[in-house]
């Protein structure tokens, strides 16, 4: 059985930043309301003509450079996105071409804000059975394109961006200095489609032949998020015989600072062990975890041997966790 090591991380954020104060000039909201309820101060918005595949390609290039892998090494590209460039082909295939990767498989994963955790799970399973050796897992989104900019209860919450990781197979079990096995230890995925109406996009090729706009019952999502993500955290720890005290870093989906802090408290983690980007990025859906990972690896917070716990919940509902010994 092989195991997947995370060998590189990358990120890309569009250059245009929109602050809460700028939004308050266009819609009936205030910086204070947005910050108090969500912790968001600003978000990045993709430029006209800048697509999800552009964001994803830039993040992937950075992850590949960090991992020291070339296009010829990649045998699988998974792009988690709910805002693909086109209905088909998969955005992953657009990214494949941009990167100059001429072999292997490429497909998208659609699990909204849980997309990156779903993508990690799929990639890790390909690696474990020996079907892929070097995998790019990308979370890339241009949620600004599916927001109803007249709906203040949703449009203030989201932003655009992309993050990526390179997973590489190891057949010996790589050990840390303390002789603990490195790599993806486990992934846990869940879905419950009965909650469709709490979070969905009111359009699609088959139903309306339009793209549609995001619709959300914020309170309902919040209520489920705290319970479901806690379940996913417990499942990850139980499956590995670990306790909250073993976790070095929580890298959660970045939707709302209050949800993030409640997960940190559940793990008894000091605030500085919880990676937070929601203040600057807002909710970038499938991109939020790899963006946060990339930041915390890039600035030296996450070190080899650290136990990193990722968790997310999104439309569907879908939710899940991934536990990685860095
Ligand atoms: N500015 C000012 N007032 C606003 C705004 C705004 N942008 N939006 C809503 N309000 C008003 C409402 O109209 C309401 O006013 P009323 O009391 O006069 O009717 C009041 O603020 C309270 O609105 P609520 O929706 O009850 O506010 P709540 O405290 O629930 O906070 C929020 C809303 C921030 C959306 C919260 O419910 C939340 O974070 N939910 C979770 C969202 C989430 O985690 N999503 C993740 C998954 S996303 C994905 O998968 C794509």
How would you describe the overall organization of this protein?
The protein is built from ten helices and 13 strands. The chain is an alpha/beta fold and 326 residues long. It folds into two domains: 3-170, Peroxisomal Thiolase, Chain A, domain 1 (3-Layer(aba) Sandwich); 183-325, Thiolase/Chalcone synthase (Peroxisomal Thiolase, Chain A, domain 1), CATH 3.40.47. A hairpin with a 3-residue loop joins strand 12 (307-314) and strand 13. The longest helix has 22 residues, at 218-239. The protein starts with a strand and ends with a strand. The structure holds acetyl coenzyme *A (ACO). Acetyl coenzyme *A binds next to helix 2, helix 6 and helix 7.
Which helices and strands appear, and what pairs or packs with what?
Elements: E1 3-12, E2 16-19, H1 20-26, H2 31-38, E3 42-45, H3 52-67, E4 76-80, H4 91-99, E5 105-109, H5 115-128, E6 134-142, H6 152-155, E7 160-170, E8 183-191, E9 199-201, E10 214-216, H7 218-239, E11 249-252, H8 257-266, H9 278-281, H10 288-298, E12 307-314, E13 318-325
Parallel strand pairs: 4-5, 4-6, 11-12
Antiparallel strand pairs: 1-7, 2-3, 6-7, 8-13, 9-10, 12-13
Helix pairs in contact: 3-4, 7-8
Bound molecules: acetyl coenzyme *A (ACO).
